[in-house]
Amino acid sequence: MIRYLINSEIDYNKWDDCIERSYNGNLYAWSWYLDLVCEGWDAIIAGDYEQVMPVTVGKKYGIKYLYQPPFTQQLGIFSTTPESGYSNNDFLEVLTHHYRFAEINLNRYNRINNNNFKINFRKNYELDLIKPYEQLQGNYSENTRRNIKKAVKEGINISENSDPRSIIKIFRQEKGRELRKMGEHHYKILEKLIYRSLYKNIATVSGAFTHENILCAGVFIIRSHHRLVLIFSANNSIARNTGSMHLLIDSIIKKYAGQALTLDFEGSEIEGLARFYASFGSAETRYPVLQYNNLPFFVKLIIEAMKRMGLK
User: Fold this and answer.
1) Distance between CA atoms of 124 and 132, rounded to whole angstroms?
2) Which of 32, 87, 93, 239 is the most buried (most CB within 10 A)?
3) pTM of structure
4) Alpha helix locations (H) across the chain?
5) Are residues 137 and 118 in the same domain?
6) Same domain, 111 and 223
């Protein structure tokens, strides 16, 4: 049986057990993580939690819809075995029964064959760390090697116990004004994610410091499902001029090299970032973005008019 459950009906223990055992489980689907990024999330459950799908509901223009919560690259359908009883289309039929509009990211293992949905694909970059550091380093681009040497020459030091708020401050000063979608609410969620994951002892907050002990770059990484997920990063002009971010990523690769882990760079569609991630020898993967809009035509017209007027 496949059923829709509101948040209060979800058995969190069974949910997390499924996410832990799922062949495609990931960090973003843990119940504690979902609670922080999308309070009151619902779920679609098959059987006794052999297959699950988080349902992340928002409300805009008075209409409930499905959206991708901040700091969650891939959600979708999770299954304890690849050959589970219900198809991905079965789950999506339940979604369309409850909601008329959606734009959500599925995970890279979800395959959708249904003409009722618009499917696009976005890039991710992943680096398998199982090889020795020397072999991994051998796959760096020449520019990356040059920047690492530059950072060392400039006296850049790496610390794994950096202050999260200081790193967030750099991001706000450098990029925050450019990103309209990144509001105060998102920074609060980010802080909660950092401190909760640090409390769980699954996170690293690393910073790059100049020889004068000035923080110039930082990254926030969470370890889950044999992956190191780069959730957040920030750097300023000092870091960009000294190769500090290159040295910072290199230090992470050096620490975990030779282990059965994957460094997940979390993107990106931005050309410069994609080139940076690829420069460490990472491989491009893709995950599906599902969209549908079954709202009545007159409702679509009203929403478009409200958007033009800047109303929410």
Assistant:
1) 23
2) 239
3) 0.92
4) 12-21, 31-37, 88-98, 133-138, 142-153, 164-171, 184-199, 237-242, 244-256, 271-278, 297-308
5) no
6) no
